[in-house]
Amino acid sequence: MCEVLRSSFEALFPSIEKAIKQADFVAIDTEFTGLVTDGQNRPSLFDTSEERYRKLRNSVTHLSVRQFGLSAFIKDKNSSGYEAHTYNFPLIPASFGPVDSCYIVQASSTEFLCRFNFDFNKCAYEGVPFLNDVQERLLCQSIDSGALFSGLERQFDESFIQSVCSTVAQWYVSSTVGQTLTLHKTHADAKLWNDFVIQTEVRKRFPEVWTMTDSFQNIAVMKVTPERRSELEEKAKVDREEEQEKLKQSLLGFTRVFRVLREYQKPLVGHNMLMDLLFLYDKFFQPLPADYNTFKRNLHDLFPRIYDTKHISFSMRKMLEAITGTFSTNLVQLYRILDSERATISTRFMPKVTHAKGFERYKSQDAPHEAGFDAFLCGYAFVRICHLLRFRDSTLDRGRASSACPFNMYLATMAPFCNRINIIRATINHIKLDGKDPPSLRPEKLIVRCRKRGRRLNIQQLAEWLSPYGTVDVRLLTPQSALVAAGNFSCAKAIMAAFKGHQHILVTKYRFWKHSQTAKIILWGGLLVSGGVCAWAVLSILKNSDS
Amino acid sequence: MCEVLRSSFEALFPSIEKAIKQADFVAIDTEFTGLVTDGQNRPSLFDTSEERYRKLRNSVTHLSVRQFGLSAFIKDKNSSGYEAHTYNFPLIPASFGPVDSCYIVQASSTEFLCRFNFDFNKCAYEGVPFLNDVQERLLCQSIDSGALFSGLERQFDESFIQSVCSTVAQWYVSSTVGQTLTLHKTHADAKLWNDFVIQTEVRKRFPEVWTMTDSFQNIAVMKVTPERRSELEEKAKVDREEEQEKLKQSLLGFTRVFRVLREYQKPLVGHNMLMDLLFLYDKFFQPLPADYNTFKRNLHDLFPRIYDTKHISFSMRKMLEAITGTFSTNLVQLYRILDSERATISTRFMPKVTHAKGFERYKSQDAPHEAGFDAFLCGYAFVRICHLLRFRDSTLDRGRASSACPFNMYLATMAPFCNRINIIRATINHIKLDGKDPPSLRPEKLIVRCRKRGRRLNIQQLAEWLSPYGTVDVRLLTPQSALVAAGNFSCAKAIMAAFKGHQHILVTKYRFWKHSQTAKIILWGGLLVSGGVCAWAVLSILKNSDS
User: Fold this and answer.
1) N or C: which end of chain A has fewer CB within 10 A?
2) Angle (nearest 5°) at CA A234 between A231 and A235
């Protein structure tokens, strides 16, 4: 792994670009400042993909990214395997002039990162900045128009700049052409010092001076004639444009890496990566669109081939159990299963994955939930999954497996999984970026009602009763009835069986219940319309009459 | 200074309480996660106190506190001076169960804190939590009802708890009464481990076991008879209530210090402290009320005597200039002025302020913008200001000055400043917590118009033109006219003088302009109503007809 800091970004950028360019695929992972910004955006088994996108967008728009991990998998020329070039970027939103991001931090997410020794100081002091297109435009307009230095929008220490200018003013009145004043950067004010801002300000306020930094990084102010000033200004204009370009590039930071990814459109691999994709879009590209299908279309245009190892591993359950006797879709567990001796020997010529030279830190040291480490695990799992699916159950290409299998051949095998992204706790278990989402494979909803008339359901009690049977979400319909979404069929079945003849509650399938209610709903229909009462009240009446 | 961390809070709390109890007054300071949450909430010279409160409330509600500094000034028994007991608290919002604060961080504020070497890791890993009354109620309800452990609301690592319970389940089926299973806390999972949650869960799932922690901090699970289980449960109920109380107290954290401050109602001293007071109210007491006067009334009930050294120092300008030849209301500068030899010898028996034993860190080391350090500077300034104002210009009590001056006598002198809080860049320069705010002392607004018909005002250009004359805010009224609020009379006067006969713009006083417009407004009045056009359009027409 190679840690990319604000201070080393510029020097490392060319090698990052080269690694992406040479890679067969790039695995990514992101650490966020939070998951949800309020309770209403929590995932639920009742969510359709559109609803989930709306919820995630509500959160992602206000949250930010703390860390980005990128592992470029490059074919190893000396073996049939891969070399991973893994970069870990601590990130922090750019802050300069009008671009001053406000983002939400969720207390529990901070706590979560603490469990894995996350370094918050590294983000604050050495985080690489980033901008999306809208922020970049704002910044460029501001730099180009000079608004940043008009006194309207800048956020530097005004009193410090004022004191520097007073010093210059005192000298200015009694100085003659050719004389120079040196503004010394002292230890005490080094942190308030900004060469660019000070020079711009001094030049603006004093018509007959010129400024430059000397070899000690101090600023020299020289008295010049108005003619000389014009000449220098003209000459400096070209330099200034270069400097402004440098400033823009440094604030663009990680977005430049995103743009390399976009340019080469290498297959992207992630694990349970829906939120990662939303962050990628919102923070480094453009604000997330309101419409879910627009998002899917635009994302597909950006990255035409995306693979989610969480989604893929669900489909490999039987194969993995057959090989290793165990199964999990948790990233670390999945890595361990695929890295196991039994998995390695199960199929011939399993490709070797090594850390490229200079990227060995993760060789000796685990770092779960460090974005770079998770990206590496995910890429590693992807290589092994590709090979297992290509060669395990077929005699196809057995000859090819003896030498390095071309990556395109792997991708052909992975075609059924391309652009299918895992979605947790929703009506469907994955979305399809390049087409219509699949239909729901969840069991139909259950209805829970109180057996006794007038008795009220305690939603918390109900959740406690149901949760031992698996993942469920409960939504109160009326004080006496609730809708239950179960995560899978065996859970729904177990609930139906367990509560058959229960003393307090009656559990029915939603369809069956709806059917039996049709007549009554028709009867009550008149009241619904004429009374203009809310749906809740009507359902409440229905329920009471039924119990 | 004494740093109070999450791990040392419980041990230090009694001494903090004692220091507050013994203090004559307590100086405070706060570091925030941001200042404004969006551009619309930025302060402006157009703001009335109600408008400013609304803006600040919009921001403070969503922001959080990173650090709180508290310096308790206790009369030194051996001298006529004071001993400062200064505590610095890194803070972090509590995160447990349903209490999971989401707060906004402003990128430029992080950058600001970086300039002063702020330790973000200390906040994340060792920050003291806090809760306001609403959050405390939510937490207590949740702990008392057991909802936290019903599987509905908890945010612990479910798969970890699941794996612990599987281990217990495997042992449970084949174990007999009296047998014990030890759950070892390993290094790898130590961070996922939560004794309270695990024990609650195991006891809930297995009817015939009992759990306890052993001397190695592992959890022992013992098979018991149902009768023994009932006995142990009854006995544990008392213990559990104690444990829950401990949990609540630890999550309440810094709020307990706030409650001590509230209980003793010692005079509170701060520097430019309006935002500090809003944070104090919102984060440790109750969500800020929508109504400004309700806020003032409630705050006054909480802390009947509050002093703002920024507001006070503005009023002492002449005195300080006479004594030291210099003046500033910046906290560090003000401290230096008041700490100077000239200030010390200007008045007899100036009280000495020392760091109490064990609190000496700031003696040898400056730490600007560390909340504890700023609180100390502020308290120090307050003591000297009290003495200067009491004894400098009067022969009154000259005898008393020879010995320790009772604090009440200082407070009597400070009465005119009590509960007057500085307000920056607004129509007034301070608010009054215990009464009606003072009338505005700012100059009247100016109107700027284009001289040429059809010419548009460039607001940025205008701000650039005006800013050399002092602090101004500009609000575009129409494309051809703008309202200008100047920070003081000399600035307004200078602008009027400088732009007299300006080629492009015409500057007039607002009142004068209004007067000259009255006839025209009456003429145009019909259009206003019948056309139903918006105010902007009407003003625009007025302006065009005038230019």
Assistant:
1) C
2) 85
